[in-house]
Amino acid sequence: MIIEDDEGLQRQYKWNFENYETLIAGDRESAIALLKNNAPSVVLLDLGLPPDPDGTTEGFMALNEILSINPMTKIIVASGHEARESAINAISNGAYDFYQKPVDADEIGLIVERAFKLYDLECENRELQQKQYSTRLPELVTASDAMEKVCGIIERVAPTAVSVLLLGASGTGKELLARALHNLSDRRDQPFVAINCGAIPENLIESELFGFEKGAFTGAVKQVKGKIESAEGGTLFLDEIGDLPLPLQVKLLRFLQERVIERIGGRQEISVDVRVISATHQALDQYINDGRFREDLYYRLSEIVVNIPDLKDRDGDALLLAHNFLNKFAREFDKPTKSFDRNVTRAIASYDWPGNVRELENRIKRAVIMSDGRKITLNDLEIEYSEDHIETLNLKEIREKNDKAAIVKALSLSNGNISETARLLGISRPTFYGLVKQYNLNIEK
Ligand SMILES: Nc1ncnc2c1ncn2[C@@H]1O[C@H](COP(=O)(O)OP(=O)(O)OP(=O)(O)O)[C@@H](O)[C@H]1O
Ligand SMILES: [Mg+2]
Fold first, then answer.
1. Does CATH number 1.10.8.60 belong to domain 312-389?
2. What distance in angstroms lies between residue 316's CA and the mean position of ligand 2's atoms?
3. Under DSSP, is residue 78 helix (H, G, I), strand (E, B) or coil?
4. Is the pLDDT of residue 404 over 70?
5. Which of 140, 238, 357 to mutate to test the pocket of ligand 1 (most atoms within 8 A of CB)?
6. CA-CA-CA-CA dihedral for 110, 112, 113, 116, to nearest 10
7. Which atom, in ligand 1's list, is nearest to the CA of 141?
8. Residue 3: strand pairing partners
9. Domain residue limits, the chain
10. Is the pLDDT of residue 296 over 90?
11. Residue 387: C-alpha distances to residues 319, 344, 345, 346, 384 (Å)
């Protein structure tokens, strides 16, 4: 886009840039109007525009407005000889570059060409940063194969009524996926009701799940519907199902078989249509072996089992999520946009994240609140991290490490017999002793 009030110059530019698609505006207002329907990558902006052709106020206003509409736009400011200062001022206000009038066709051509290149690079970079699983699971951030597989399963089973069991360590996103299953099903406009079987005292779970009639027990002053009933038409999410006490497992099983409930103290059977999703971080097979979980209930709940990988097993996701949370919390707490110190990104990528996404989210949230600079440091993140944690990619170091490990293993397999060790390693005794010396190994030990 060319914003220039001098008609002669307009024609010259048009001719200069005949290889580009150009838009021309003679003042700020018509430029902004044009900009709303077009998104030019590069703008040539004359600072002296009517009604203030000899000043720069209109030009600066245009600069700000364009950048607030599209911050990625590369704006090149034209300045007269005497107005060098305002050109520099424009740069500090977000302009990409400036040039001096009278226009030199070659010079402006080069500047514009470079601006387009930079624009394209920045767009590409932004796309890469935003590369994530772009499906109908909008809140879910991932770019890893392991997690994309999971998303694929979720999308396929969501529209069906089968019961899904989500297995994953704490903080891996079980609840997020349960909600995704609901939101992608045609039950999405009906209730999603979650109950945490591990958080409710045993004697209260039954009334939570099934509800009760007035007078069913002391304190039952009115009729109360249970969670199952209130999920009618929608989805019932049984979180931490592994913690459900055995007597209630029997009652839940009965509901899953008959699809009817009875409120406590009630005599009437009420049929309920719900889709059941359950989740646990416990090893249910072990629970079944120990007699703590009913196998028949397990089979009812697990028509489809979804195993959610740990965060450390999702290649690249920790950093991707970290950037997402960083932006999210900076916005939420109204902090200036921040970035990570270089060693922080390394620490994030190599840390084990025992608490998975939840831990990552909490640490970033905390860091955003605590940090005062523009960079999030290791201190803000409170991760124990030393450079030795990172996997080295230095080939010499890798070889040395492997050599040492093989030598130790061969020594132990051969009970310390050197000839045998050398044979296992496929080297001669002198070579073996050479390596021992080189790596400074204590073979007696
Ligand atoms: N892939 C993801 N992308 C974006 N946010 C995620 C992702 N996975 C989890 N989260 C967020 O991390 C937090 C923990 O997720 P969620 O509560 O679903 O995990 P959970 O497995 O149920 O955890 P817990 O075992 O602690 O109950 C939530 O705030 C959730 O929004
Ligand atoms: Mg949960």
1. yes
2. 23
3. strand
4. yes
5. 357
6. 160
7. 3
8. 25, 45
9. 2-123, 145-307, 312-389, 395-438
10. yes
11. 17, 11, 12, 9, 10
β-bridge partners, 306: 166
CATH 3.40.50.920 fits 145-307, yes or no: no
| pLDDT of the residue at 415 | 86
Distance 174 CA to ligand 1 centre (A): 6
pLDDT value at residue 383: 83
Is residue 227 pLDDT above 90, yes or no? yes
Q: How far apart are CA 411 and CA 406, in angstroms?
A: 8
Measured in angstroms, how far is the CA atom of residue 172 from the centroid of ligand 2? 8
Counting ligand 1 atoms within 8 A of each CB, the residue from 358, 359, 362, 365 with the most, and so the one to mutate, is 358
Q: What's the 327 CA to ligand 2 centre distance in angstroms?
A: 23
Q: Which ligand is nearest to the CA of 322?
A: 1
Residues in contact with ligand 1 by the CB-under-6-Å rule are 139-142, 168, 170-176, 281, 321, 357-358, 361
Could you list the beta-strand ranges (E) of 32-149: 42-46, 74-79, 97-100
Of all atoms in ligand 1, which is nearest to the CA of residue 175?
Answer: 18
Closest to 116 in 3D by CA, of 226, 37, 187, 40 = 40
The fold adopted by the segment(s) 2-123 is Rossmann fold (3.40.50)
What's the gap in Å between 197 CA and the centre of ligand 2?
11
In this prediction the pTM is 0.64
For 323-339, what is the mean pLDDT?
85
275: nearest Cα among 186, 199, 206: 186
- Do 2-123 and 312-389 agree at the fold level? no
Q: What percent of the chain has pLDDT over 90?
A: 57
Locate the DSSP E strands across 230-372.
Answer: 235-239, 260-261, 270-271, 275-280, 304-307, 339-340
How remote is the CA of residue 350 from the centroid of ligand 2, in Å?
A: 25
Ligand 1 atom at minimum distance from 139 CA: 4
For residue 443, is pLDDT > 60?
yes
Looking at residue 390, what DSSP letter applies?
A: S
For residues 406 and 423, give the distance between their C-alpha atoms in angstroms, rounded to a whole number.
12
Query: Residues 135-157: pLDDT tens digits?
Result: 567 788 888 889 999 999 999 99
Cα–Cα distance between 131 and 140 in angstroms, integer? 12
